[in-house]
Amino acid sequence: MRVWKYGSDINTDMLFPGKYTYTCSTPEEILPHLLEDLDPSFAKEAGAGDVIMAESNFGCGSSREQPTVGLKALGIKAVIAKSYARIFYRSAINQGLMLIECPEAVDAFKDGSTVDVDPEGGLVKVDGKDYAFPKLPPEIIAIRQAGGLLDHVRAELQKRGTR
Amino acid sequence: MGATFAQKVLAKKSGKPSVQPGEIVTARPDHLLTHDNTAAIISKIGGELEKYGLDNSETPVIVIDHVVPASNEKTATNHKRIREFVAARGIKHFFDAGEGICHQVLISKGLALPGSLIVGSDSHTCTYGAVGAFATGIDRTEAASIMLTGKTWFKVPHSLKIELKGSLAKPVSAKDLVLTLIGDIGASGANYLSVEFHGDTAGLTMEDRITIANLGVEMGAKNAVFPVDEVTEEFLKQAGAPAGWEALWADPDASYVKTLAYDLSKIVPVVAKPHTVDNVAPVTELEGTEINQFLIGTCTNGRLGDLKVAAEVLRGKRVHPSARLLVLPASRDIMLEAMKDGSIEALVEAGAIMLPPGCGPCLGAHQGALAPEEKCLSTANRNFKGRMGCVEAEIYLASPATVAASAIAGRIVDPR
C-alpha cells in the first residue's frame, strides 16, 4: 500500500484534465489520465489499496466526476484531507469513494509514515497512532453502503416498481 | 432567530416549517441543468429509463454548449445521442449547439426564478443566484439519479453575509469586485456556505450580478445569491419568465458564520495570477506582463455589456500584432445584439477572432488552446494549470475592460 501526498487546493483539472472531459467517461478511458497534470507517475504506479493524503480544499473547481469515478475504479482505499470542496465531496459519496476529513492525521503524516484506515471505527492510523474522524449522517452512509448513489436509487426504484 | 435565504428555500422545498444549518433534507429541484455531459449521464441509466421512465420531462434543461460545433466523431456522437434522447423523452427545455452557454441560456430564457431550487451538473450552476434562485452544482451521477427520481438530498448550509456599500468607479467592474473578494477570503473561504449579498445591490446591473454569482464556486460556495428587486423583475419580464414566483430573502435577524463589508468605490482593477483564482493582485503590479492570447467571453463575462465595453476600448484600434484576441459571446441572442449595435464589427475590425457562442477554450475542450510557455489573459473564471489544454501555459483572469485594453498593448495594462 502506497500513500500519495499532495498539497492544498488540488482542483479537478489537476485530477483529470478538462480537455478529456467530453471524450473520456468510462473507468477504462479515465484511468490513463488520472492526476495527469498533478503527478504523471500516479496513473502508472498507483493501485488498489493505496491512499491519497492532501491538505485543504481537495477537489475544488469543476463538477466533473472523472476524478471520483477514476479513484473508485482504481480501488483507492481512502482520500484523507484536511477539507474538501463540496461538489467533489458529494461526488465521492455518489461513487461510494471513501473520503475522510481528518486534519490531525494529515499533520501527523511525514514522508515514509505508515497509514491505515478503519472506516467503520472512524479511525485513521498514522505510524500506529489513532486519529478519529467525524462520521457521516446515516442518510449519507446508506448511499455509500449501497455502493454509490445509482445503486441506492436502483434499490429504491425496484421497491417502488414500474409505473 | 430568523432564517437565512438558504434555510427559507430549503424549508419551503422540503415541505418543512423551518430547517437548521447542518440538517439534511430531501427536495425536488425545480430544474436540473445538464449540458454536453447529458450523453454520459443517460448512458449510466439506459436500463432504468427503459423500465421506470424519466421522472418528468419539464424539470431537465439540456443545453449543448461545451464542445460546439462538435470537434470530432466522438463529441458529434454525444450530441446526436442527446438529440435522440430529447426527442424520445419529450424534453421540454432543450437548446441545441449555437444557442449559447447553458447558464446564460437558462437565465435569459426565464427558466431561473426567484425562490426556486436549481441543480446542475456544472459547477457554475451557482450563477442563478443572480435572480434570487438557490442554485448549486452536482456531479453527473447525481444528475442521472434526479432524472429517475426527481429528487435529491441537501445539507442546509451555514451562510456568509457580504455587505456592499457605494458603487463601482468605471472602468472597475463586477469582475474586479468578485476577484477581490475571492483573493481576500481564498478559494475555500466560503466552502459549503451559502453566500448572500446585502446592502447597495440595487446599483449592480443584472449582468454584474450574474458575473458575481457565477464566481461563487471559486470561493467554495454552495450558492451565491442577490435579493430580488426592480432590476430582477424587469430582467424576468424581458426574459419572458412565467408569473407566480415568490421571492425569498433572509430575515434581518438571521444568523451568519461571518459578515464581510466592501466599499465598492475602493475596488480597483485586479488580475488573478496563475494558477489559482484566489491569487489576486492589483493590475498595476502586473503591468508589462507580455500576453500571447486574449479571451473575452464565457459564462462569466460573455454578455452584451462585456462585449460593448471591449468594443469601446478596441474601436478604431488594433490587437497587438504579437497577440491574438478570441471573442465568444455567451449566447446567440447576445451575438445578434452585439452585431446590431456594432460591437462585433468593431472587435473584428480590431483583429478579433470570433468563436461560436459556447464554452470550448475556457476548459481546453475545444478551440483556442495554448502552447507551452504561452500566456493568456482571459475574462473566464478559472486559471488552473492545464485548464486551457496545456499544462505548461499560464492563465491570468481579469475584467473585459482590462483584457481589451491589454490586447492593444500586447501586455497587461491598467484599463483606467
Architecture blueprint of SSEs:
The complex is a heterodimer of chains A (163) and B (416).
Chain A: E1 3-6, H1 12-15, H2 27-30, H3 40-45, E2 51-54, H4 66-74, E3 78-81, H5 86-95, E4 99-101, H6 103-108, E5 115-118, E6 123-126, E7 129-132, H7 138-145, H8 149-160
Parallel strand pairs in A: 1-2, 2-3, 3-4
Antiparallel strand pairs in A: 5-6, 6-7
Chain B: H1 5-14, E1 24-27, E2 31-34, H2 38-44, H3 46-52, E3 60-63, H4 73-89, E4 93-95, H5 102-108, E5 117-120, E6 134-137, H6 140-149, E7 152-155, E8 159-165, H7 174-185, E9 194-199, H8 206-214, E10 223-225, H9 230-238, E11 258-263, E12 270-272, E13 280-282, E14 293-297, H10 298-301, H11 304-314, E15 324-328, H12 332-340, H13 343-349, E16 353-354, E17 375-378, E18 394-397, H14 400-409
Describe the overall structure.
The complex is a heterodimer of chains A (163) and B (416). Chain A starts with a strand and ends with a helix. In chain A, strands 1-2-3-4 form a four-stranded parallel sheet. Chain A has a three-stranded antiparallel sheet with strand order 5-6-7. Helices cover 36% and strands 17% of the residues of chain A. Chain A has a single domain (3-133), classed as Aconitase, domain 4 (Alpha-Beta Barrel), CATH 3.20.19.10. Chain A has helices at residues 12-15, 27-30, 40-45, 66-74, 86-95, 103-108, 138-145, 149-160, and strands at residues 3-6, 51-54, 78-81, 99-101, 115-118, 123-126, 129-132. With 416 residues, chain B is α/β, with parallel strands linked by helices. In chain B, 61% of the residues are buried. The model of chain B has no long low-confidence stretch (mean pLDDT 97). Chains A and B meet through helix 5 and helix 8 of A and helix 2, helix 3, helix 4 and helix 6 of B.
